[in-house]
Amino acid sequence: MDENNLLVVTNIFPNKDGSYYQGVFVKEQIKFLKNYFDNVYVISPWPYGYKMFLKDYSYENVYVYYPRFIHFPIGYFRRRLGENYYKTILKVIKRENLKFKIAHAHFTWPSGYATHILKRTHKIPFVVTTHGLHDTRMNFLLKNGAMEVWKSADAIINVSRKCVKLLMRVGIPEDKLYYIPNGVDTSLFYPQETALIRKELNIPIDKKILISVGNLVEKKGFEYLIRAMKIILHARDDVLLYIIGEGPLRKRLENITRELKLEEHVFLVGPKPHRDIPLWINAGDLFVLPSLVENFGVVNIEALACGKPVISTINGGSEEVITSEEYGLLCPPRDPECLAEKILMALNKEWDREKIRKYAEQFDWRNIARQIFKVYEDVLSNY
């Protein structure tokens, strides 16, 4: 096959203006992978009635499609989701006459499942990246054809070492498993003058600032961070917490903040486009990620690239990034007392911020993209 094109199939992908930023790690990866291909085609199917504002667009040599299909969240349709994904992807391929030499699916289900069918019908190799793979999801994935996907895939990229171990445990051969972490764009995430950024964002210059970023959902653990703030303020009253993100738990988190009388110290900022996240991180003294579970935790390396120490939980992903107390501190999830203790320790510690920044260089997307392209080359050489 002469076409030097890449097909990417993904459950989530940001829209053109970045107001919908789910799957930004896929778009950031493509930003550097596209240099190895003539064209990159991204297909992210959505059911009718969901995220209807998502519209097809293109930039440089990347073409993004959001095809629609009928889906209801009931048993029969849930079981058919993978096949419906495939049929929807196939319509785009035929309509646009897309030609490609390799496919890369992000997420085992349903994108990976659909792409494994595509491999069979189009005789092309495919790679899958296992975002969201952890013990608590293994039963769900296995019930939804995950073993078919993993056995069919020519290579499986895992963003954490624990994912490699999980797949080996269920019998996937080690020789098709790759550990390649997520990356960070160091041209976007780099140290900036904190005082100037705080003025721009209207954040007090004379306070200690904690920054956290994530969707306001249960697994992100923001409730425990807010409760930790109550403990922190007993020790010192000059600490402010800014949480950037939106989600279904907003009202609950606002209620907890009011109940604990923290309205003057905890601020739910709301969602911000990805291009603004470096400003918020640089405004902080520390970055905090209180997640209950993470597959990797991209925001960890984004903060490190800005030279900011990270306080995080042992959540499955962060401990593979924060490997030394020179870069941050860790505590168990769901433990506001320990979280408060580590934050107070970090606020009193002298950090080598240049050392933190240099540590993050290994996660530069340029390095990560080279590793991913090498996987493609390995796969294609055997095809």
The secondary structure category is alpha/beta
User: Roughly how many Å apart are the termini?
Assistant: 11 Å
CATH topology of the largest domain: Rossmann fold
What is the H/E string?
EHEEEEEHEHEHHEHEHEHEHEHEHEEHHH
Extended strand count = 16
CATH class category of the largest domain? Alpha Beta
**Which regions have little confidence, pLDDT < 50, spanning 5+ residues?**
none
Helicity level, as a percent range?
Answer: 40-55%
Mean pLDDT comes to 95
Biggest β-sheet description: 8 strands, mixed
Protein name: Glycosyl transferase
Pfam families: Glyco_transf_4 (PF13439), Glycos_transf_1 (PF00534)
GO molecular function: glycosyltransferase activity
InterPro entries: Glyco_trans_1, Glyco_trans_4-like_N, Glycosyltransferase_grp1
Tell me about this structure:
Helices cover 40% and strands 17% of the residues. α7 crosses α10 (277-283) and α11 (298-305) packs across α13 (353-360). It has an 8-stranded mixed sheet, sandwiched between helices. It has 14 helices and 16 strands. The mean pLDDT is 95. With 383 residues, it is α/β, with parallel strands linked by helices. β11, α8 and β12 (239-244) form a beta-alpha-beta unit. It has helices spanning 24-33, 75-95, 108-122, 135-143, 146-152, 161-169, 194-201, 222-235, 250-259, 277-283, 298-305, 336-347, 353-360, 365-381; strands at residues 5-10, 39-43, 46-47, 57-59, 62-65, 68-69, 102-106, 126-129, 155-158, 177-179, 208-213, 239-244, 266-270, 286-289, 310-313, 328-331. The longest helix is centred in the N-terminal third of the chain and has 21 residues, at 75-95. It has 2 domains: 5-183 and 364-381, Rossmann fold, CATH 3.40.50; 194-362, Glycogen Phosphorylase B (Rossmann fold, 3-Layer(aba) Sandwich).
